[in-house]
Structure formats: structure tokens, C-alpha cells
């Protein structure tokens, strides 16, 4: 985010979203490696789906917290005009697409309300959290499913006479 936001005006909002979500997906690939590391180093090569999920969701939540903290700093300290710029871009796209005056006015009203809500750090944080979390949750579920590994149950050798006895029962 820190490396792409300053160039958003050059690459455009649509490409910026693609770059941003690509970076989010790539960063959450660390969840896979974190679960695998846990399985190999803590679980002695074994991990259940539940334990793998807990490890992965922990990594996801920490990552999301850092994402939100980074955005809060960027937004409030360096880009307080972000919502104005984003709103203007969206309105210009609507106008270029031939939207009616009513649709445009409705979108302007929507952005004015969003801009007002965005001034509240709690609202801003909650909305920002919802950007990376679904991606992290999906990668956590997938990684936990792929990496789960249970201990193979070994059957002890049973002497021959005991086997015959078991078959008769």
C-alpha cells in the first residue's frame, strides 16, 4: 500500500485496485507458509484443520491490523483528500457513461455521506479491515485444508494365535 498509493493518480483508480488486491493476495500467501512452518516445527509434521485454521486466522488478523494501521496513517496524515479524489473520479466515470442527472446527484450524495463517515477513525478502520480480510479468510481456509496432516495410526503386530481367537468372536 505504501508503495502504490503515491502513484494512484498516475496509474488510475481501476488499475490501482488491481495492483492493490494483487499485493493483498501475494501478502496473504505468507499464511500458507506460516501454517506449514507451524506444522513442521511445532506440530512435528502434523496439524489438524482446526489448528491450521487458528494459526492462519491469527496471521490474517495480525496482517489486517497492520493494513488498517497503515491506511489510517496514510489517510489522516498524507491523503485526507482521498475521498474527494475518489468521488470525483467516480462521478466523472458516471458522466462519461451518460448517467442521468438524478443518478449523478444520488452518487454525489452517497459520496458526501461516505466522506463524512470516513472522518470517524472507527468507521474508517472497520471499512478498511473489510478490504483484506475476506481474501485472508479464503487463503486461510484453503491453506488449512491443503496442509492438514494427521498422524498415521500404526497397527501393532498381533501374534498369530491371537488373530484366530479374534476371528472366532
What would your notes on this structure say?
There is one protein chain. The protein has 8 helices and no strands. It is mainly α and about 170 residues long. It has one domain. Helix 2 runs parallel beside helix 7 (about 135-145), helix 3 runs antiparallel to helix 7 (about 135-145) and helix 4 packs antiparallel against helix 5 (about 100-120). The longest helix has 30 residues, at about 50-80. The protein is elongated, with a radius of gyration of 25 Å. The relative contact order is 0.15. The mean pLDDT is about 85.
Concise account of the structure shown:
It is built from 8 helices and no strands. It is mainly α and 169 residues long.
Question: Keywords for this structure?
Answer:
8 helices, 0% strand, 169 residues, mainly alpha, elongated
